[in-house]
Design a protein that fits this description.
Helix content is 47%, strand content 21%. It is α/β, with parallel strands linked by helices. It has two domains: 3-99, 2-Layer Sandwich (Nucleotidyltransferase, domain 5), CATH 3.30.420; 110-284, ATPase, nucleotide binding domain (Nucleotidyltransferase, domain 5), CATH 3.30.420.40. Helix 5 crosses helix 9 (216-240).
């Protein structure tokens, strides 16, 4: 029996999915192993914990693994990929492939087919492939200049919106409480701290205020995020000349998973440009894509 491990190294957590040739057997989640976000020591610890826990849950030890695929943003940086391979190699002799998070997301959402996948978690990116095998991307250049519609973008936009308000609102009071601020001036100071605060952490607050409490400001922020994500999908679809044929659009990440408003408004906005786009109803798990790519390392 051969065992394989797929790892989604996101900005907020590491998800490890272990399986054999037939299916998944065990899952583990740990803190982020994204070196650029948490540093080498924390990334190493998180990756070790995720691998060890997934193996323990499946009743095996890491040295029994046949192959590992790790998907993480910034994988094109050779030094980052080398460090992740080295960390995993401390536990197992299995070959380790490090690819972009967009690659495992595309595999999870579309398999070997054509279409576009939208990732909206801590960051965001649109990535796609056409029937000729050509690939294209849009966004995903980091929180300072890109990551439109992501959790980080939503957090920043929410702070900006509440600072522009003349009165109080549910969203404003919850953001003030989350950051332990008592007034406008303290919120401005907190938003401009160096290093930057955890804007992505505000997404859950915005989503709850919009989805459960129907806060108008929060709903506006989420709809704007959905429009930004739809624009990324349109850009990739145009680059790949996917229209006029029907094509699939996959969704990945916590923003889609935890906001019906984002999912609904995204589909509506995309349909306004491409009526032939078929938006997936379920949010895909990129760790499943990583697991399949790990299997292909041994049996392509």
């Amino acid at each position: 029996m051969a065992y394989f491990l797929g790892i989604d190294g996101g900005g907020s957590k590491t998800a490890a999915l272990l399986g054999d040739e037939r299916g998944a057997l065990a899952r583990a989640e740990e803190a982020s192993c994204k070196i650029q976000a948490v540093g080498e020591a924390a990334a190493r610890s998180a990756l070790h914990q995720a691998i060890t826990q997934a193996c323990a849950a499946a009743g095996i030890v890491p040295r029994q693994l046949a192959a590992i695929c790790i998907g993480v943003s910034g994988a094109s940086d050779a030094a980052v990929a080398a460090r992740l391979r080295s960390f995993a190699g401390e536990l197992t002799p299995a070959p380790v492939q490090v690819v972009g998070d967009n690659v495992i997301a595309l595999q999870a959402a579309l398999g070997s087919g054509a279409g576009v996948v939208l990732i909206a978690g801590t960051g965001s990116i649109a990535y796609g492939r056409n029937e000729r095998g050509n690939e294209a991307r849009a966004g995903g250049y980091g929180p300072a200049i890109s990551d439109e519609g992501s959790g980080t973008w939503i957090g920043k936009r929410a702070v900006r919106e509440v600072l522009a308000q003349s009165g109080d609102s549910l969203l404003r009071s919850r953001i003030l409480a989350a950051w332990k601020c008592s007034n406008h001036a303290e919120l401005v100071s907190a938003a401009n701290r160096d290093p930057a605060p955890d804007f992505a952490g505000l997404f859950a607050i915005v989503a709850a205020a919009a989805e459960r409490d129907q806060d108008a400001t929060a709903i506006t922020v989420l709809r704007h995020a959905a429009s930004e994500l739809a624009s990324l999908a349109v850009e990739v679809a145009n680059q790949l000349e996917l229209a006029p044929s029907r094509f699939r659009v996959g969704l990945v990440g916590g923003v889609f998973k935890h906001s019906q408003i984002v999912r609904t408004h995204f589909a509506r906005q995309l349909a306004a440009t491409f009526s032939q786009a078929e938006v997936a109803e379920a949010v895909s798990d990129p760790a499943e894509g990583a697991l399949e790519l790990a299997r292909r390392m041994i049996s392509p």
